[in-house]
Amino acid sequence: MKIFTKMYDACLRWARHKYAVYILGFVSFIESIFFPIPTAVMLAPMALARPNRALWLAFVAMATSVLGGVVAYIIGAFAFQSWVYPWIVELGYGDTYNRAYQWFLEYGVWVVLVAGFSPVPYKIFTLTAGAMSMAFVPFLVASIIARSAQFFLIGGLVKWGGEQMEHKLRQYVEWIGWGVLILGVLAYIIYNLVN
């Protein structure tokens, strides 16, 4: 049974929808605030479906993600204790928040740069930055750099690989899907054993 191939084909069909770019922007925006699914999950198949627009799609994802990060920063600054922290604990991100908080204390703005590629959800960093009253301009600059790096890397690889990459990826998507799933489970187990 080819689970990941079916999912991949479905993502490519959705990516060709006439409103796909608006959906990408919306998902990218809310992912920076509360949405649990990473933007890259939608950006990659959209860029594969339209390699000639891959960099434009990366820009849309980056811009809307940073705007969502600004909204999350404001929410964190004004409603963290009353609304955000209880919600973080309810969703099971309490330990993740505490880790992000410690990283902010140790590394400051550099944490936001790392957040673009970290396994810790970006939304935790945006909300925490607001709650800790981090200087807004460095937060904004770091967010733009981090999100640009992630999304333009995806868009650039797809543009470079083009249609050929789409066919190769489809050919190996089952192996990649199961491999990522197994690595994720192993990382989770190792992380829990270490902490």
Element order, helices and strands?
HHHHHHHH
Number of strands: 0
Report the span from N to C terminus: 36 Å
**Largest beta sheet, briefly?**
none
Tell me the Rg in angstroms.
18 Å
Protein architecture, described:
The chain has helices at 3-15, 20-31, 40-49, 54-90, 94-107, 110-115, 122-131, 136-194. The protein starts with a helix and ends with a helix. It is globular, with a radius of gyration of 18 Å. Helix 3 (40-49) crosses helix 8. The mean pLDDT is 79. The longest helix is centred in the last third of the chain and has 59 residues, at 136-194. It has one domain (3-194). Helices cover 83% and strands 0% of the residues. It is an all-alpha fold and 195 residues long. The chain is built from eight helices and no strands. One of its GO terms (cellular component) is plasma membrane. InterPro entries: DedA_domain, VTT_dom. It holds the Pfam family VTT_dom.
